[in-house]
């Protein structure tokens, strides 16, 4: 199983760096297919995110300075929301968590599909309270299903706050730092964390993150949007199969 976890980590890291996500949307379904229960997959995924989000945001820092101010406010909200995840996971069934995951994927696909990859005008200055509330709500839901929150945050940033897609994914990965640390803390306090498996996947993910971010900066925005949609649709198919068929 260690070899599988290492491979999962590298692949998840690449996807995390390339798409600006925590990686849970990919890692959770893979762990489910490998035989882990939903709550175990969530725990491993959250620990992996701590590794990939910090390293990925460090690599993104020079190109994403313009979005980090909003990212800090959203991130603080995500941290507070993420602290509630252990309580939610303790009181909600595996099946319900999988249904929530599927619902979030569908929302993300629809919103990104109908939003442009680039906006002609600059994004307006956002209300700090609104940004905090967005982060708080996303933190609650995202950490409870083992994803970093970028899968929800990116379509909101692009569709409602008018960020360019690449800037939104950079901010999304930065947000994951806050939400994943909060989720890691909450899950650990509630006795759900798998430290060894999470560390194996997390350390391996650093390799993937490096190459994922390099690849991200080589493609144009419209192609990037297509890749994000393809990824989300593939993950949706896997989750529907795992939840309703297998």
Automatic annotation (TrEMBL):
<keyword id="KW-0472">Membrane</keyword>
<feature type="transmembrane region" description="Helical">
    <location>
        <begin position="227"/>
        <end position="245"/>
    </location>
</feature>
<feature type="transmembrane region" description="Helical">
    <location>
        <begin position="71"/>
        <end position="90"/>
    </location>
</feature>
<protein>
    <recommendedName>
        <fullName>Probable membrane transporter protein</fullName>
    </recommendedName>
</protein>
<keyword id="KW-1003">Cell membrane</keyword>
<feature type="transmembrane region" description="Helical">
    <location>
        <begin position="96"/>
        <end position="117"/>
    </location>
</feature>
<keyword id="KW-0812">Transmembrane</keyword>
<dbReference type="Pfam" id="PF01925">
    <property type="entry name" value="TauE"/>
</dbReference>
<feature type="transmembrane region" description="Helical">
    <location>
        <begin position="129"/>
        <end position="161"/>
    </location>
</feature>
<feature type="transmembrane region" description="Helical">
    <location>
        <begin position="194"/>
        <end position="215"/>
    </location>
</feature>
<feature type="transmembrane region" description="Helical">
    <location>
        <begin position="167"/>
        <end position="187"/>
    </location>
</feature>
<feature type="transmembrane region" description="Helical">
    <location>
        <begin position="40"/>
        <end position="59"/>
    </location>
</feature>
<dbReference type="InterPro" id="IPR051598">
    <property type="entry name" value="TSUP/Inactive_protease-like"/>
</dbReference>
<feature type="transmembrane region" description="Helical">
    <location>
        <begin position="7"/>
        <end position="34"/>
    </location>
</feature>
<comment type="similarity">
    <text>Belongs to the 4-toluene sulfonate uptake permease (TSUP) (TC 2.A.102) family.</text>
</comment>
<dbReference type="GO" id="GO:0005886">
    <property type="term" value="C:plasma membrane"/>
</dbReference>
<keyword id="KW-1133">Transmembrane helix</keyword>
<dbReference type="InterPro" id="IPR002781">
    <property type="entry name" value="TM_pro_TauE-like"/>
</dbReference>
């Amino acid at each position: 199983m260690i070899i599988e976890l290492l491979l999962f980590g590298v692949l998840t890291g690449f996807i995390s760096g390339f798409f600006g996500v925590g990686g849970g949307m990919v890692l959770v379904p893979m762990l489910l297919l490998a035989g882990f229960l939903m709550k175990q997959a969530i725990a491993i995924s959250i620990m992996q995110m701590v590794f990939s989000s910090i390293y990925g945001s460090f690599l993104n820092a020079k190109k994403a300075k313009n979005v980090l101010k909003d990212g800090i406010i959203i991130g603080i909200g995500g941290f507070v929301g993420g602290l509630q995840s252990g309580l939610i996971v303790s009181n909600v069934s595996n099946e319900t968590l999988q249904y929530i995951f599927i619902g979030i994927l569908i929302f993300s696909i629809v919103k990104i599909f109908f939003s442009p990859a680039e906006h002609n005008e600059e994004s307006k200055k956002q209300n700090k309270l609104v940004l905090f509330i967005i982060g708080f709500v996303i933190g609650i839901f995202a950490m409870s299903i083992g994803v970093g929150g970028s899968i929800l945050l990116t379509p909101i940033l692009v569709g409602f706050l008018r960020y360019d897609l690449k800037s939104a994914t950079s901010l999304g990965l930065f947000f994951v730092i806050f939400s994943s640390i909060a989720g890691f803390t909450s899950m650990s306090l509630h006795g759900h964390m798998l430290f060894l498996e999470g560390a194996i996947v997390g350390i391996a993910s650093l390799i993937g993150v490096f190459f994922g971010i390099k690849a991200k900066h080589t493609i144009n925005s419209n192609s990037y949007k297509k890749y994000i949609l393809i990824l989300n649709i593939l993950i949706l198919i896997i989750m529907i199969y795992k939840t309703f068929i297998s």
